[in-house]
């Protein structure tokens, strides 16, 4: 599904005039899987909005190993913080599927934030949620064992019962600060206990309550 700028949370509620002006200033492109959209360290001169497809965010360690930070799906905008502080991209983002993106000039985004306080407020909420998520991930990595971290990751994504592993078990491990081997060991343990079923490219959650107890989280149907 191809989204529009209006589907991005930070632009929600904008009038057609503002949205039309943004769209006119944007540059839209389609790329195949494997295309690098931005590289860590390069200047963030545009707000990159993913309108269709899936992208992974990664960094390369001093040893030359890629660390997957996140897998992101449309609609989402990349590196909003870097744009605000006139800094570089914080990660390299690579298309995992065919994608469509819109490039919005930094100057146009900053002018919009100054003119539309509601957009600035929504952006702040988005950034706050990002910081909270990072804080939770760092805390999990520091105080939880790998099975508990894997269970937490699954519970937070199992609303439909099926959790895609877009970047494989290695990608899951990179997101929670664990090795692929330890992630596989945890998943196999859950499978033996009847909590999940491991399939090609996904995990089917069979017993979300048991996983939630292991993760010390409310069960999905209790979280609301």
Provide a descriptive summary of the structure in words:
This protein is of the alpha+beta class and 224 residues long. The protein folds into two domains: 5-141, Jelly Rolls (Sandwich), CATH 2.60.120; 146-215, Arc Repressor Mutant, subunit A, CATH 1.10.10.10. It contains eight helices and eleven strands. The protein has helices at residues 16-25, 80-85, 106-115, 117-143, 146-155, 168-176, 180-192, 208-215, and strands at 27-31, 36-38, 46-52, 54-60, 66-73, 76-78, 92-95, 99-105, 162-164, 196-199, 202-205. Strands 1-8-3-6 form a four-stranded antiparallel sheet. A four-stranded antiparallel sheet has the order 2-7-4-5. A three-stranded antiparallel sheet has the order 9-11-10. Helix 5 (146-155) packs across helix 8 and helix 6 (168-176) packs across helix 7. It is globular, with a radius of gyration of 19 Å. The model has no long low-confidence stretch (mean pLDDT 87). Residues 144-209 form the HTH crp-type domain. InterPro entries: cNMP-bd_CS (IPR018488), cNMP-bd_dom (IPR000595), cNMP-bd_dom_sf (IPR018490), Env_Response_Regulators (IPR050397), HTH_CRP (IPR012318), RmlC-like_jellyroll (IPR014710), WH-like_DNA-bd_sf (IPR036388), WH_DNA-bd_sf (IPR036390).
What are the key terms here?
Arc Repressor Mutant, subunit A, 8 helices, 224 residues, globular, alpha+beta, 4-stranded antiparallel beta sheet, Jelly Rolls, 2 domains
What class, by secondary structure content?
alpha+beta
Task: Give me the CATH fold name of the largest domain.
Answer: Jelly Rolls
Task: Give the uncertain stretches in residue-range form.
Answer: none
What is the count of distinct domains?
Answer: 2
- Enumerate the strands of the largest sheet in spatial order, edge to edge or round the barrel: 1-8-3-6
Radius of gyration, CA atoms, in whole angstroms? 19 Å
